[in-house]
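Predicting holo structure, iron/sulfur cluster bound.
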Amino acid sequence: MLAKTGIPTPDDLSSKLPSEERLQQGPVAIVECFTPIPCDPCYHSCPFKAFQVFQDINDLPVLDFTKCTGCGACIAHCPGLAIFVVDYTYQPDRGLIKIPYEFLPLPVAGTEVITLNRSGEEIGQGSVVRVQNPLSFDKTAVVWVAVPLTEVMAVRHIKVGVGPDER
Amino acid sequence: MVLYTDLLVVGGGPAGMAAVLQAADSGLSVILLERYDQLGGQLVKQTHRFFGSKDEQAGTRGNVIARAMEEELEQLDNVTVLLEATALGYYEDNILLVSAQHSLKKIKAERIIVATGAAEKMLTFPNNDLPGIYGAGAVQTLMNLDGVVPGRRVVMVGAGNIGLIVSYQLLQAGVEVVAVVEAARQIGGYLVHAAKISRTGVPIYTGQTIKRAYGNGEVEGVELWQLDHNWQGIPGSERSLAVDTICLAVGLRPLTDILVQAGCQMAYVPQLGGDVPLRDDNLKTSNHRFYVAGDAAGVEEATAAILEGELAGLSAILELGAKEGQSLEVKKRTVKKKLDKLRKGPVGEKIRAGLLKVRRDGNAGKDRYSHTG
Ligand SMILES: Cc1cc2nc3c(=O)[nH]c(=O)nc-3n(C[C@H](O)[C@H](O)[C@H](O)COP(=O)(O)OP(=O)(O)OC[C@H]3O[C@@H](n4cnc5c(N)ncnc54)[C@H](O)[C@@H]3O)c2cc1C
Ligand code: SF4
Ligand code: SF4
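Done. Tokens:
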């Protein structure tokens, strides 16, 4: 249970996910923010105004998936590191996840990393496609990781520098 | 020698700095005291992005917020900042005694804003004096200011925001966090913070606490046990974790000694962290010279501390007859509205309940000091 473990269950997640149809149309943000807290940078950072207007700073973020382009601009602005972009259309057999990442060393594009799920269990491997770390992200890097399509909804973290051979 | 000033602000955290910034164009003389060698209070140690409203810089890292406020402060020529200056005590003849860089100073002020923040609470358990047991604040100071890690394998006690955030910062520093232990049945901090550490593989154990620490001359491990519904340990549920560091994040207590000495009516309000002064809706205490703001008024958050600092600052300088009174009144109303909005949601419930007990005009809580409340 989320409030006991900090790990969202499939039930918690179901209300946050776009339709299967939307997922098949290209990149889209998944906002894994489950309890109302006084926080609103997600809403302010979206250039496409895809978040429902916050009447109150304690509102839960609600995303209009038809407006979200999956650009990822909101990811680094969320202090909860709770926003991920998933793209099921990246390749025929692989999807792409954009993950906020604040650990050193940063991964390097073209390398492999170990992928972890929401409980920190190892799932498999992913290929780092790109690492965004501009000044405007203020040290929260956004790592683009390609993983098998079946793992796109499970992978939420990566482990760098411990490839399978080095372990 | 006695230093005279219109406004004295004790504590250079976000609340104190925000208070001083209000006096920018007031023409009043202002002194700001800070016991450390830099301004910023808790903020200088906060390397994570802040929650709160975008207007009060949410999404920005705490240390960056502190720097920005300090830079603004440096522009003011009516403000004297005394660093390494600790307010020691307050005397009846309205003298505040200050130890300033190893000399003693006496300061007399028309109005005093106490923004001294809060101190960490301790936990009692056998062997809690072993080297290797730290408060979360100390761990943050070591890591984020001094660049020193406290140990290699840490257990964190407390899953409130501070416990969760400091666990995350330990992980960032390359320290292994073996577990986060929380006595309550649920995680107290924001679940997004919990999720951040869960996905790195750190387990959070709720309904458990420390039974004892063990080790020969230093921490070598910790024994945990489960708690029943009366918060009593359940014999037979013990288990040991080998750790070299125990980090305690079990809450903060407002630092209000000066206000007690000034005879302000106090009340014990658990929702606000402990003994706090009664105050009116301008944050003025029962001693007409004294205001309170920030964590010293009740343990809350930086956004609230900044807004309270602004409110106390504006109220004090209005009383002192600042030049542009009209516009300040308007500003004060805006700040009050923002505070109300911030505290509206479920997270603010505790604070709202606490604040009901400290109203100088309302049904205040019982006064433990002067017996007049
Ligand atoms: C780990 C952690 C994470 C946090 N994360 C967040 C967050 O994400 N968002 C958020 O909004 N808030 C957060 N906070 C809370 C926030 O930092 C505090 O609420 C805020 O700093 C309170 O401001 P303040 O000015 O009242 O007190 P402080 O920041 O504590 O400042 C008080 C100052 O007074 C000085 N002082 C004390 N006594 C004396 C004396 N006798 N003489 C002279 N000087 C004195 C102290 O040295 C200190 O500098 C966090 C706090 C911690 C510990
Ligand atoms: S991914 Fe881009 S479009 Fe979608 S919510 Fe975030 S910022 Fe807005
Ligand atoms: S910025 Fe992140 S943590 Fe804050 S409300 Fe939005 S999604 Fe939640």
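The pocket of iron/sulfur cluster (ligand 3) is lined by residues A 31, 33, 39-42, 61, 78-80, 82-83; B 192 (CB under 6 Å).
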